[in-house]
Amino acid sequence: MYWSAVSAFLVVLGASSNDLTQRELQAWKKVEPSIIYLMDGQSVRGTAALIDEKGFFLAHKTALEGSKVSGRWANGSKVSLTLVATDDPTQFVLLKANDWQSGSAPAISLSPADSSDRALLAITSNGPVRAERVANTYGVINPSRRFMPLSEVRMENNLNSLGGALLFNINGQFVGALNATLESPGIQNAYQNQMRGGAIRQSNDLNSRQAPVQIFGPGTMTTAYTISPKVMKRVIDGFKSDSHEVAHPAIGIFCRDAAPTGALIEIVSEGSTADKAGLRKGDVITSMNNVPVKNQFDFARIMLDAEVGDILTVWIKRSGLMQMIKVPVGK
Description:
- Strands 7, 8, 9, 10, 11, 12, 13, 14 and 15 form a nine-stranded mixed sheet that branches. A six-stranded antiparallel β-barrel has the order 1-2-3-6-5-4. Strands 16, 17, 18, 19, 20 and 21 form a six-stranded antiparallel sheet that branches.
- It has three domains: 2-97, Beta Barrel (Thrombin, subunit H), CATH 2.40.10; 109-240, Thrombin, subunit H; 253-328, Roll (Pdz3 Domain).
- 19% of the residues lie in helices and 40% in strands.
- By secondary structure, it is α+β, with helices and mostly antiparallel strands.
- The chain is elongated and about 65 Å long.
């Protein structure tokens, strides 16, 4: 029974990789030793990548059900894992392989934070498939409702196999994992219209600057999103730390658009760095670090570029008067 299940498992992966180009196959061979398939009985639920040779794996939360996880390497051999940490803002999880021997497999390497590689490889529950990054944008990650920089990715594949799929560039470097997926232009447009008032407000179309890297066939195109390489690095660095905690920059306030311009502070969390620095509900932020803040999204973008420990120079309007306040970035 076990060997028949393993054989079927290997056939599925082989069928997927048969559609790849020689360069894509080379990338797959480079990353395959670092990938495990997360199982639900005899079915593949998702994928995980080794980020630390001590046996720590990264996966997307959608690939898990419970804190005890079983997985298989591409050759069919089994591995058991335990959930160690969850990063709620990005929905990534950290898993630890049980009875792990250091050096059993190579850890993945991470794509540079400023990377804009277009040709990608998505490691889905059905194996590797071709993908293409077409734009950089901003959006809200559900269910955390956190504003994040995102990359828009397109591929020709069954939507059901893409949830939490890991993304690598053609050099075999880790790029991210797929979050929300959109199967058709109609759905995509509806999603963007819905989010335009609260999430996706800016897009940097890579097609306008680079020649296409791939021609897809006549199958259904799927659009999906992954967080940016910079945020991905922050997640992995946090997971690999002694605390396994990801330090996302924050100052402890929630804003909405002010009229006619600026970001109006609606909530100041008690004990936060903003609270201690003197920011108050009703203040209107007009600039941060000499960058104009015209709305809540400008504020969010500046915060995303900050690092924990930075000191922000925040100009606010309070009772009609301008005031400058120095605010440390917390987490």
